[in-house]
Amino acid sequence: MAATDSAVERIVIENCAIATVDANDTEYASGHIVIAGNKIEAIGAGDAPENLDNVVRRIDGTGHLVTPGLVNTHHHFYQWITRGLATDHNLFNWLVALYPTWARIDEQMAYSAAQGSLAAMARGGVTTAMDHHYVYPKGAGDLSGAIIRAASEMGVRFTLARGSMDRSEKDGGLPPDHAVETLEGALADTEATVKKFHDASFDAMTQVAVAPCSPFSVSTELLKQGAELARRLGVRMHTHGSETVEEEKFCHELFGMGPTDYFESTGWLGEDVWMAHSVHMNDSDIAAFARTKTGVAHCPSSNARLAAGIARVPDMLAAGVPVGLGVDGTASNESGELHTELRNALLINRLNPVHREAALNARQSLRLGTYGGAQILGRADNIGSLEVGKLADLVLWNLSTFLHSSIADPVTALVFGAAAPVTASFVNGKQIVENNRLLTADEDAIARSTREEAQRLARISAQA
């Protein structure tokens, strides 16, 4: 194979099982991948082509499965420093318990918590992360900039969903009055964040979405004007929706309709929108999401932690609703890892009495965590599957240890088995994990920093 650009550096991975997660679910029992610069140049069965120019590294993938990098579609990074609290609460009571503490975060806390959240995901095979940050206390500093800086330093591809809240306790919402922004302030700062940080290019490392928090913490006007802003700027839209029965009751009492109808009335259904959770969806809700191609971030562990319920993922997929996986904030999913959600999504959905064992299989679960996530982040043309011309975001999972070696099918081993070690993880062609350790950050330093910031936040909250 003659290279068209002999100057570009190439990495060759061989002798590995490969699950491409392309449109045909193409797999190779033993194959190769060639990374050229930041893109996939070749993929197929057997050995890599001979006579490749400028090969700087060869990796023997024996005993490994290579998949697309995992794509996280819902998270709240700042919650890394409030883990383990309110462990026996439902969503509304959990929010009421934690909002007073969250309202005291500052820039250094946000940065440190983002490092912790990103480290947990990156070390577990996430190559594209997102953060729905919506708590912007007055005088807290540049929280969005701190979060984006942490992601850039970690080397992961990143979407900041710039959140906002303007409905506080005095307006019938849940957040404390001092924890919310004004309508005008939230819109202005969101627009400034998009203009400063959003990159629309094919290989963008940082993108921004418009993301008012939820129906019970934002005004109708913020939702409407937020949608108008996002579409004027050409960016995606994200919020929480249909997470609990309490939320549905809230929407009926306040707006005279359920969450999906309310979202549609405010411009919040469409192929540029994705919702977190979508647990309590009836047939007409699912049909509306399918008709408008509105996406869903499925967060199985968080839904279980807060006793929210079991989302109807099989029905959504059957209807054509785009679905990805989300960690959710680490105050409601303390592990902070997405690769464990592959297993949890499959197992929890099988508890649905309608679908039972037919709810999801291993390959469907892997697709949720890769291509499905890329789809709802609007990046399915460049990440989410292993195909020539796509960006080189991929993971080598070690399936050779006793934890997996007796499971013949590698995809089954990855999804049904224990959390597999990551031998190597590449983002944009650059390696960020080696032998289950981060190459781009000091894990011990992150442990110290997050512990100190969690303790500082607890002290400030107690004094307040």
UniProtKB/TrEMBL annotation:
Looking up InterPro entries in the UniProt record yields: Amidohydro-rel, Metal-dep_hydrolase_composite, Metal_Hydrolase, MTA/SAH_deaminase
Q: Which GO terms describe its molecular function?
A: 8-oxoguanine deaminase activity
| Keywords (A to Z) from UniProt | Hydrolase
The EC number(s) attached to this protein equal 3.5.4.32
Give the matching Pfam families. Answer: Amidohydro_1
Q: Which domain of life is it from?
A: Bacteria
Q: Which residues form the Amidohydrolase-related domain?
A: 65-431
Q: Which NCBIfam families match?
A: PRK08203.1
Name listed for the protein in its UniProt record: 8-oxoguanine deaminase
**UniProt source species:** Streptomyces antimicrobicus
